[in-house]
Amino acid sequence: MLLKLVLVALIPACFGALNPIILVPGDGGSQLDAKINKTTTVHYICQKTTKDFYNIWLNMEQLVPLVIDCWVDNIKLVYNNVTRKTENMPGVETRVPGFGGSETVEWLDPSHASSGAYFKDIANMLVTVGYERNVSIKGAPFDFRKAPNENQEYFVKLKELVEETYTENGKAPVMLLAHSMGGPMSLYFLNLQTQSWKNKYIKSLVSLSGAWGGSVKAVKVYAVGDDLGSYVLNAKVMKQEQITNPSLAWLMPSTIYWKPNEVLVQTDKKNYSLSNIEDYFRDLQFMDGWEMYQDTVKHSSNLTAPGVEVHCLYGTDVDTVEKLYYKPGTWLDGNPTLVNGDGDGTVNRRSLEGCTHWTKLQQQKVFATALSKVDHMAILNHNSVLSYIRNLVNQV
Ligand SMILES: *[C@@H]1O[C@H](CO)[C@@H](O)[C@H](O)[C@H]1NC(C)=O
Ligand SMILES: *[C@@H]1O[C@H](CO)[C@@H](O)[C@H](O)[C@H]1NC(C)=O
Ligand SMILES: *[C@@H]1O[C@H](CO)[C@@H](O)[C@H](O)[C@H]1NC(C)=O
Ligand SMILES: *[C@@H]1O[C@H](CO)[C@@H](O)[C@H](O)[C@H]1NC(C)=O
Ligand SMILES: *[C@@H]1O[C@H](CO)[C@@H](O)[C@H](O)[C@H]1NC(C)=O
C-alpha cells in the first residue's frame, strides 16, 4: 500500500520531467481544408460552391477519374510574378486545420482510414510512456504547398506554440520532431531564433528522413509528376497540381550537395544540371517554376547549423532516383528511365546525410543514425525508430 502511494506520488513527478514534443510534418503531411465559390469550373461535374470548408488534401473520394480534375483545379496554386507569391485559384479559400493539436498531423484523413495515417504510431507510442495528446504532444501543421518565403506567419505561430508548450509543461524545453520537409522547415525556424531563446526553449531537434538538401525527385516531378506511391493515382494528373507548389521548387537538389555540372536530366540533344536549370524549366515550358526556384534557392542552399542538439534518423539502401534518362529520339514530353542511386526511395542519401555536416559547425551534439532499407515513409512506424524515440524521451 505504501509502495503504491509512493509510486502514485512519483509518477506525476516523472511525467513532469518529460520534454513535450511538437510534430512538424513534411510535404503533404498536414490536413488542408477548402471552401469553394467559383464562377467557372473545368468540368460540369465539378461543384461551383461549397457551403463550408471541406477536407481537400488526400480525400480519396476526390481522386477518382474526372473528379480529380475538379480537385486539381481547387488545390493548385497560381504564381503571381509581381508579388512573387502564390495564390489559390479564384474562388478558392483554404485553411490548415488543427494547429497546436496533434490530430491533424497524426491523421491526414479525418475519418482515420489507415491510408491516411501519418504521425499516429509515434503519438501512440509516446502516450504509452506518459505523454498526453494536445498537452505534451502537439502538432504544427502548415500549408505544405508553400516554401519558407511564403510561410513567415507560420514561423511566428510556431515560436508562440513552443513558448506556450514549454510553460504548460512545467518549463520543460520542447523537442521538435520533424519528418521529411519538416526537417528543413524546422532548421529554417531555428535559424530565425537567437541562441539564448533556443537554449531556453528547445531540448532537441529529432528529424526523420530530413530532406536537408532537396531531392532529384523534385526534378522528376516537373517532368512527369508523381503518383505518391499509389497505384490508383495518375502521376501526370497529379503533376498539374504538384508543379504549382513553391515547396517543390524549394526541394530541388541543393547547390551544396550537387555539383553545378552533374547531369540530372540526360537527353540526346541536351543535358540539364543545376548550372543550366533555367533551360530545363524553359524547355518544359514552365517558367513559373524557374521563378519559384529563384525565390526559394537561397533557402535551400544554407548549411547554417541549427544550434540545438540534433537526432537525425534516415533510411538508406533504397533505390532513389538520381537522374532522368531520355532514350535517343525522345524528348522531355516522353517517358524517361529513372536511373537510381542510394537514398530512402524519395530523398537521395547525400541530402539525408546533410545533418552530419553540423557536427563540425556547432557545439551541440549531432547524432546521426542511418537505417538500412528503411523507406522514406516507413520510418514513421519502424520499430527501431519508435524505440530510439522512446529511449530518448526517457532519458532524464
Ligand atoms: C460567391 O462569389 C460571388 C462573386 O463571384 C459573390 O457575389 C458571393 O457573395 C459569394 N458567395 C459567398 C457565399 O461567399
Ligand atoms: C509576368 O507574367 C506575365 C504573363 O505571363 C508576363 O507577360 C510578364 O512578362 C511577367 N512579368 C515579369 C516581371 O516576369
Ligand atoms: C485535441 O484537440 C483537437 C482540437 O481542439 C481535438 O479535435 C482533439 O479531439 C483533441 N484530442 C484529444 C486527444 O484531446
Ligand atoms: C543562412 O542562414 C543564416 C541564418 O538564418 C543567415 O544568417 C545567413 O545569412 C544565411 N546565408 C545565406 C547565404 O543565405
Ligand atoms: C550528356 O551527359 C552524358 C553523361 O554525362 C554524356 O555522355 C553526353 O555526352 C552528354 N550529352 C550532351 C548532349 O552533352
TrEMBL record:
Gene3D superfamilies linked to this entry: alpha/beta hydrolase (3.40.50.1820)
Cleavable signal peptide: 1-16
This protein's UniProt keywords: Signal
InterPro entries: AB_hydrolase_fold, LACT/PDAT_acylTrfase
Protein name (database record): Group XV phospholipase A2-like
